[in-house]
From TrEMBL:
Biological process annotations from GO: receptor guanylyl cyclase signaling pathway
GO cellular component, one term: plasma membrane
Name under which the protein is recorded: guanylate cyclase
Entry's EC annotation: 4.6.1.2
PROSITE patterns xrefs: PROTEIN_KINASE_DOM
Classification via InterPro entries: Cyclic_nucleotide_synthase, Kinase-like_dom_sf, Nucleotide_cyclase, Prot_kinase_dom, Ser-Thr/Tyr_kinase_cat_dom
GO molecular function, one term: adenylate cyclase activity
UniProt-listed SUPFAM superfamilies: Protein kinase-like (PK-like)
Source species of the chain: Grammatophora oceanica
Membrane topology: Single-pass membrane protein
Gene3D superfamilies xrefs: Nucleotide cyclase (3.30.70.1230), Transferase(Phosphotransferase) domain 1 (1.10.510.10)
Protein origin, superkingdom: Eukaryota
Main location: membrane
Length: 139
């Protein structure tokens, strides 16, 4: 179910959320936190994703059943070529993100790199002997 979400949304399912809190909510059957089905997801895939993310593990399809359901699904609905392309694109995007984060943490102090990787504004810091100025040159 999570893989189907990633393929069709091209996002991490709980992006920007606290991992510990997400795990707690996913594991708590009263909350049953699951990612929403992407709007671009075909109907058959939406049902499959929903079944795969069922709160009760006994109600989730087995891999054999998944295989059978995917084989029975209309190929034009699933657009396998696009799914493969999406998987490849997702892999490239994750690799690029990982490389950019590695570079951030090599170049900047940890607290600055963390803020930048989370998209937060980094305020200038002033020290008695050194001032660090961050500037963005446009144009």
């Amino acid at each position: 179910g999570i893989l189907l979400y990633e393929v069709y949304s091209r996002k991490d399912p709980y992006e920007g959320e606290d991992p510990k809190e997400v795990l707690r909510q996913v594991a708590d059957p009263t909350i049953n936190k699951r990612p929403p089905c992407p709007a671009v997801c075909p109907g058959q895939v939406e049902y499959l994703m929903s079944d795969c993310l069922a709160a009760d593990p006994d109600k989730r399809p087995s891999f054999e059943e998944l295989d059978q359901r995917l084989k029975r699904a209309n190929a034009s609905t699933l657009e396998p070529g696009e799914v493969l392309h999406s998987l490849q694109q997702l892999k490239k995007e994750k690799l690029a993100l990982r490389r950019s984060n590695e570079l951030l943490f090599e170049v900047f102090p940890k607290h600055i790199a963390t803020a930048l990787s989370q998209g937060r504004k980094v305020e200038p810091e002033q020290r008695d002997l050194v001032t660090i100025f961050f500037s963005d040159i446009v144009g």
